[in-house]
Amino acid sequence: MKFRILFEYRLTKICLVLALFLMGYSGLIYGQSNFKGQHSTSVLTKENNNLQITRNQLLINNNWEFNIGKGESFTRINLPHTWNSNDNSKDGKEYYRGVAKYKKDIELNQDQLNNKKIFLYFEGVNQVATLFVNGNSIGKHIGGYSTFAFDISKSVKAGANTIDLEVTNESDDNIAPLSMDFTFYGGIYRDAFLIVTNSIHFDVLNNGSNGVLISTPNVTEKMGGLNIRTRLLNETNKNRKLILVHRIISSNGKLVETITKNVVLSANSGVNEISLAGKVNTPELWSPDSPKMYTVVSEIKDLETGSVVDQVVNPLGFRWFSMDPQRGFFLNGKHLKLTGVSKHQDFEGLGSAVSNELLIKDLEMMKAMGANCYRSSHYPQDPEVLNACDRLGILVLDEIPLVNSITESEAFSGNCHQVLTEMITRDYNHPSIYSWGLSNEICILAKGRIGSERGNDYDNYLKKIISSLNAKAKSLDPFRFTTQSMHYKTDRYESSGVNKIGDYIGANLYLGWYFGVPDSLIVSAKKMQILSGNKPLMISEYGAGADPRLRADNPRRFDFSLEYQTQVHKAWLKSILNNDFVAGSFVWNFADFSSPYRGDTNPFINNKGIVSYGRIPKDAFYFYEAVLAKKPVINIGMKNWKYHSGIGNSPGSASKKIVIYANTDEAELSINGNSLGQKKVNDYSAEWDVPFRNGKNLIEVSGIASNGEIVKDYHTIDFNLIPSDLHQMKTGDVIRVNAGSSLYFLDEEEKAVWMPDREFTKGSYGFIGGKFLVNQNDRIEYREGVADNIKETVKDPLFQTQRIGVKGFKADVSSGQYEITFCLADLSIKSKSSVYELGKEDDVNKANVSGTTEFDIMINGQNIAENLNPKKIKGELTAYEFSTIIYTESGLNIDFIAKNGMVGINGIKIRKIK
């Protein structure tokens, strides 16, 4: 199987148009548009001393009005915009999925309308958009992740023009996706443009493309052949004689080839498609290491005057690739292990309304980490994402939002085919794209049992849709791969036969997270490959959750600690790199993302990212950078924590393990200017037991790269030292105990760390009696606490865990006054499993939950609280804190006296006041 491909840029931003146009014409003029309140750059040409506007693309993001629901009042907003940037993570509330209205006034003068065509162009509106201009119905677009345009020429007039766009993100059984582990943000969440062309122009309405599609059926190191298909329109009432010109410009601005053809376009003849062939000798090849780009400047010229009537610009990247079931992926004839990430488009605090700058920074961060491929999960993403991948050299799997299940209707099938057509047409010219994705885990919510009448009907319809989508993709683009991403439970893919559709398979495998052990990843991948007809294989998802606020001394599966996530990623990446039949892999996920139906330690967030929702790297990111980056790397793993805590194990200090990630042979670590010596870097990491003193501590690490370059990293940690002998506690010292948990919890509100639960030891502190509240089921052998959202707090990990059946708590403190805070929550609701936890389906929750509890609290014989019942005070799954102040001369002895059920304590904090 071998593909040779050449691609283009989609419709580019006007600044790129101007820059490239300048290469070919000395008469370029920058003009200011007459559209009010917006900045516009116009492309003009100078021919026979006459100026003509060829095309004007105006960004119209500012000064929209927005109205949600049934209200009458509008508020002023700018694009990109979503109405779900905040409500997708509210306690106990469903995020809004409904109708909203957008409105904008645009003023045009008569000169801008004479013999011109006017279009509105939207890069993304979720998920149904209905357009009216000056009260006239223009049309409707269905699908939340595609780019589309409307011709509004017949509805605009000189003077003020009102644009009304009705948008809904309501659930619709005939629109994909039907369901998924991410938020279906509503709104005009990408850029919007007004495009003005002459009446003779390239096709603006071609599914988001600019009317020029470029392919390269034959590419070698000696010759790059290309075919350019162009869609032209003459919307005048006269036949026109024209010249179609394609100029090929190299990465250094040199004109390397010109392809021309004289054409006659009949009056009002609709779309005219013209194909022209050309070649570039000894082309500069595009690759992740050397993403050499060409540019195709396409122009329509008037044959008599030579003036340019319309112009568009597209990218060009010469390369070819192939994939082998046993040897993996090859680019330009050379083996290349694909190692990359998947990513959703949202960002903390912004939802899906993310600026181009932030989207590009994500990709630059991936590239700096060493990633060479990217999966646009689970939908086509912003055009600027693909532009950046072209420029940076990142290969892309571009996929449609067909996820989890289907609706057995012609309307649903038609929508899937339309979305696929829009994706391939818009993105066709990007050299970064090597594959089209047809679906993701499409059998995870299949209807009916295998072999039943209902199951057979569903399977047959599913196979029909996927087969038709594959055929459609091949008809639109015979030069790229097609694939599906399938979850590990393959029986339904086999019964329906969809596992045999596509050029290679994507395996979503979470061995070592939801179930199994990391070492079985490759065994499962090979099994899926064999069952799918021994096709080439990529691991399209693998990952583990990690709450940036949780760390573990002894990490275990499903504890959401940063340490466990790094531990399993180490094992997974080693297996992937050592097995050639695995053509490549995508980490799930690059960044944490919104998931409104998840509990976990950070509710409403899928935290499998190797960077946080706000793009702060986790330890696993630093590990990948050490392995994959081709630059010298050294990083301190603890860098995302500015605070820590520990019990002293020597006079004036407490020892903590610090891990560094590096690709140097050795590294040296110092703490507060004192060297702890050099260590060999094994498996891209090294660790030291570091003595921390109370207060600020400066960690420094350095290493020498193979090229002789010295690389360093620094980090300061504010350490809360708990003395081993509590009689040494000073005024202001604090002990925080994360009850029922073996994890350290970073409290971002208090800028401090809660210590793991511990039993009492003389001279120190700890609980007496009781055990950890745990969930045990067939997927998770041992999980501390519950996975539910805890209301009225952002400290969910603290309140999700609990020590139950506890009798008391002791702290052998010196005499003085102490503030004692109790953290409580009723956890009697059993956590529900999620379909996205890709483990066994016969889960039985066996949580040893205490149920309704009433108890008294006594401190040093003094009754502090009677008949305390968190459920009656606050309700289920709701945080409750209260504090008391005690003076003691003989330590703190806290007794918990159960009245009904078992006592459950979520946290205790002791602060010495004086």
TrEMBL record:
GO terms for molecular function: hydrolase activity, hydrolyzing O-glycosyl compounds. Residues 656-711 form the DUF4982 domain. Signal peptide: none annotated. Residues 216-319 form the Glycoside hydrolase family 2 immunoglobulin-like beta-sandwich domain. Keywords: Glycosidase, Hydrolase. Residues 328-626 form the Glycoside hydrolase family 2 catalytic domain. Residues 735-901 form the Malectin domain. The keyword Metal-binding does not apply. It holds the Pfam family Glyco_hydro_2. Residues 63-195 form the Glycosyl hydrolases family 2 sugar binding domain. It comes from the Bacteria. One of its GO terms (biological process) is carbohydrate metabolic process. Belongs to the glycosyl hydrolase 2 family. This is DUF4982 domain-containing protein. It comes from Flavobacterium sufflavum.
